[in-house]
Amino acid sequence: MLYSGSTVMISLAGLFLVRSERVRGTGIGMMVAVLVMMAVALTLLPAVLALLGPGVNRLALPWLRRSLAHPDPERSRWARLAALSMRHPVAVAGATGAVLVLLALPAFGLRYGVDTSVGAVGTTPAGVGMARVTAAFPPGLISPVRVVIGRDGRTGAGDDRPGVTGASTLGAQQRRIVADLSARAATMPGVVAVSSRVDGAAGTAVVTVVAAGAAEAPATADLVRRLRADASGAVAGTGLSAHVGGGPAQIADMVAENARATPLVIGVVLAASLLLLWRA
Fold first, then answer.
1. pLDDT, tens only, 137-172
2. In the chain, what are the helix, strand and coil shares in percent, each to the nearest 5?
3. The 204-211 sheet, strands edge to edge
4. What is the pLDDT of residue 170?
5. Residue 164 DSSP one-character state
6. In 3D, which of 204, 217, 225, 198 has the Cα closest to residue 142?
7. How far apart are CA 217 and CA 222, in angstroms?
8. Which of the listed residues 52, 178, 247, 259 has the most CB atoms within 10 Å of its CB?
9. Integer Cα distance of 154 and 170 in angstroms
10. The pTM is what?
């Protein structure tokens, strides 16, 4: 129990390789749950079994009562399987490995994504409202892509230090950059509408891009990548910074992180688990 529980905790620790606080928090919660179960199994369970004694077998399944009444560990199916494995270790290992490889083959065709449909809540008021909005308006209107442009990474209010005026304001050149970026975004495939809002005093501009597809669609993820490349090139050498966000950008980043971290997590977990079991 100690080694099996430790193996599970090592597997869950692989979630820390994912650059997501939500995933890491989930991993911590599951590790705590496994730790509590290990503590119960190593302390409370033996005490309960000692109190019950042989009477615990009264709750056995009907087809197991005979074997429990007359136990013969040397002739059990598990004993026969263990003996077979000891006599032919290479053959058993090869056959087991081949079966595992066949079972893992579908994993190479995985397509990472995020499902944002209403699903099980489709009949609730929130689900019905979402379905009506989706039917009446372009999917991208519900969750648009936003390009936030500011001076030197500033995306909030202007500099309010005494004696400093207009330190973060957007000049005419910067406003032209915002206009050009909006115009280029409007010509990109899959774009329904583009609007921009400039707050010159705060030194911030927001370009809102409405995609034709849903936030989780692969075409929308491609649009996010094009906008990021175009925005980075537009502000290069101007003293401005551009950040592409919004729901579609978050989903695109999440999918990319899943694709990056999944093979790494699987490899680390397998290596650590095999090392622990080998030492056991």
1. 877 888 899 999 987 644 444 443 333 334 446 677
2. 65, 10, 25
3. 191-199, 204-211, 145-151, 240-245
4. 63
5. -
6. 217
7. 9
8. 178
9. 11
10. 0.69
Q: Which two tokens stand for residue 199?
A: 């707050």
Helices (H), 70-138: 77-87, 89-104, 125-136
At 151, give phi and psi (nearest 5°): -85, 125
Give the pair of three-digit tokens for residue 210: 């409405």
Residue 80 in 3-state DSSP?
Answer: helix
Residues 43, 24: Cα–Cα separation, whole Å: 29
Q: What are phi and psi of 88, to 5 degrees?
A: -130, 65
CA angle 259–207–168, rounded 5-degree value: 110
Long-range contacts of 103-106 (CB under 8 A, 24+ apart): none
Q: Which residues contact 20 (CB under 8 A, 6 or more apart)?
A: 254, 257
Q: Cα–Cα distance between 172 and 32 in angstroms, integer?
A: 56
Identity at 232, one-letter amino acid code: S
Interatomic CA distance for residues 203 and 93, integer angstroms: 65
Supply the Cα-derived Rg of the chain in whole angstroms. 29
Residue 80, CA distances (Å) to 64, 68, 75, 89 in order:
18, 18, 7, 14
Contact 120, 174 (CB under 8 A): no
pLDDT band at 191 (very low <50, low <70, confident <90, very high): very high
Tokens in use for 147? 């390009």
Which tokens sit at 66?
């005979």
